[in-house]
Amino acid sequence: MTKQVLLISTLALAVLMSCSPAADDQESQAYSIPASDSEALLQGLTEFEEHAEAVRIRANAGLFADAAIYGKAVAWALRHPEEFYTADYTQNAYKALEVAKKRLTALEGGTTPWTHDKGYVVRAYRSRVDGSLQPYGLQIPESYNGEPTRLDVWLHGRGGTLTEVSFIAAHDPAFPHDDALSVPRSQNYIQLDVFGRTNNAYRWAGETDIYEALADVRRDYNIDPDLITLRGFSMGGAGAWHVGLHNPSQWAAVEAGAGFNETLIYAKQADLPAYQLAALTIYDVYRYALNAFNVPTVGYGGEIDPQLQASVNVREQLQEEGFTFTKDESHWTTDDLKALFLIGPETPHRWHPASKTESSAFIDANLPRTVPDHVRFVTYTTAYPDAYWVRIEGLDSHYERAEIDAQRSPDGVVVKTTNVRALSLTTSNRTYEIDGQAISGAGANPSFIKSNGIWSVGRLSDPQKRPSLQGPIDDAFREAFLVVRPTGTALAPDAHAAALKRMERFQTEYAKWMRGDVPVVNDTDLTAEQIAGNHLVLFGDSGSNQVLARILDDLSPLEWTAEGLKVAGQDYDVAANLPVLIYPNPLNPDRYVVVNSGHTFGETEFLGTNALLFPRLGDWAVLSTADESTVAAGLFDEQWR
Question: Which residue ranges make up each domain of the chain?
Answer without folding.
Answer: 386-457, 473-634
